[in-house]
Amino acid sequence: MTLKMVIPKGKLYDKVAELLSEVGLTLVGDSRNYRPTLYGCDIEVKLLKSQNIPEMVALGQHDIGFAGMDWIIEQEADVEVLEDLGFNPVKLVSCIPEEWNWEEVKQRNIIVASEYKKIANDYLSKLGVPFKLLRAYGATEVFPPEDADMIIDNTSTGSTIRANRLKIVDTVIESSTQFIANKETLQDPAKKEQIDNLLLLMRGVMNGRKRVLLEMNCGKETIDSVVNLLPAMRAPTVSELYNADGFAIKAAIERKLIKDLLPKLISAGATDILETPIRKAL
Questions:
Q1: Which CATH number is 211-277's, of 3.40.630.30, 3.40.50.300, 3.30.70.330, 3.30.70.120?
Q2: How many angstroms separate the CA atoms of 218 and 254, rounded?
Q3: Of 30, 55, 122, 175, which has the maximum CB count within 10 A?
């Protein structure tokens, strides 16, 4: 049974294509081709702007898709979030001109520009300041100071904000790319099985990216010291060497721990250390 998948155009396309490739599915086309082909499965693909995806999946126009949490919240899209992929992490922030005082700004009736009408309205209402909200259609950062007192926009590095002489005064929400599904689709056993299998492989790839496989040898007298250092997924694999004068050890370790771990392993008596990438960890 054919699944309908929707993928964002633009910079997220390449990250999704890479993830699908590591799963074992080949996406043929590019972000200019609105209907690329996905080989290796029975899935029909279409590209849309990120802003349109949550609503289209919620309506059942597509079974599964990839969308930022910011647009899921903004559209109040009734979808099932299956996995936070962590792609394109951004913050929605409130900003004012860099020379202005935030406490003083909050005392007056402010004009706010944002693409995110619902999120901005909810935030400003909770903030308790009188405001007039303008819907922006891109280039939100150019509004202050002449046309708005504040903007609410997304940022990853803050460079565009600083370049326009603005400063961040608050973080509204944090967002990253989510793998989502239509809720009614998940009630179809055949489609749900397809989605579950795809999700299993995607999680395996994401877990694999976070870890490396460490292999090493050590003597009998140092085995306990070495093994106690290894934060493996469950427990390290230990086997006796052929000549029976030591042990071979394998462990899947979080990539971020390797830099500090390797000197400690060597000091504890580990030798012949090999570090290997992991394609999937299930």
A1: 3.30.70.120
A2: 21
A3: 175
